[in-house]
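Contributing new complexes? Match this layout with zinc ion.
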Amino acid sequence: MEDFCKRLPKIELHAHLNGSLSESTIQKLCQLEGAPHLFDNWQVAINHGEHRTLSECFEMFKAVHALTVTPEAVKLATASVISDFEQDGIIYLELRSTPREVEGRMTKEQYVDAIVEAILAHQGKIVVKLLLSVDRRHRSDDAEHALKIALDVRAKHPDMVVGLDLSGDPTAGSLDLFLPTFVKARQHGLGIVMHCGEVSNKAEVLEILKFRPNRLGHVTCLHPDLGGCQEQWKTLIESKIPVEACLTSNLRCKTVPSYEKHHLRHLLSARHPVALSTDDKGVFCSDLSNEFHIAAKSFDLSEQDLRDLSINTVDFCLASQQMKEQLRRCFQ
Ligand code: IMP
Ligand code: ZN
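Output block (do not edit by hand):
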């Protein structure tokens, strides 16, 4: 089964750039910063059997951000992450990242341009699209800035930026602050993906579901067994909005008690559309093949079930119809 999961062509729809850096990429970035020992005493990955609280996980992103501080470093990081995914059998990747400036070293525009350059320079078969993230800890101006950059990049490279994401510490910020930007993004034809219900927050969850993003990340605390309620779960299931399910991320962040008790079980039994995803493969020390394998073991899925799960993900990509046809042909 492990081998089957590796060989299965896969689609990754929920991957944060700075959370996806492998240990070897982090070492290369340390060299580039002229500080080869910067991470010697800092553990960047949460290995098998280990767990962190949500806030400890967010501390880890800060550490990684200290390395992607120049366009050159961002380009190297992006190129490495794309190669890692390709080696794991990913045929289509929607990579997401929050435009970030570093005083005196890089503007937000340069940050995003560096990612775009790395995507364009990649020579493999994997298709890569970009989502720009809005961090809930930021201000509404930052969200507007992210939208402007997304539209500027799209003008130069049509089809490269496919949407806007709402992410960041789920205990911070408020949806209302950013909703006007997401409304505008939708009017401009961008896709919308939102992290939803990583912590219990009924009012916000219902507001997000009403807004109907193209996809939802996590939906951890919606089911009554995991801190939600029947109303939230029923509204989700009736919405049929595809869910990016991140098994290992949720387990290692301690938002679900075990794989077996992960809400993917309920999503599968309700035949709800799901895309297995890694979230932050570097920080959570996993890859998408591993996530498929875990799903198979935890929920007794057959090879055919996994094949169907992977092929069905094509429908939830924010790519053109033509690209979706191309991906379906890949599976055939
Ligand atoms: P970046 O956007 O490429 O810098 O990737 C790291 C960022 O992604 C973090 O600082 C968070 O804002 C966001 N992120 C990564 N994982 C999660 C998650 O599980 N929930 C919410 N936000 C996340
Ligand atoms: Zn995420």
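Reviewers usually confirm one structural detail per submission. For this one: The first helix runs from residue 2 to 7.
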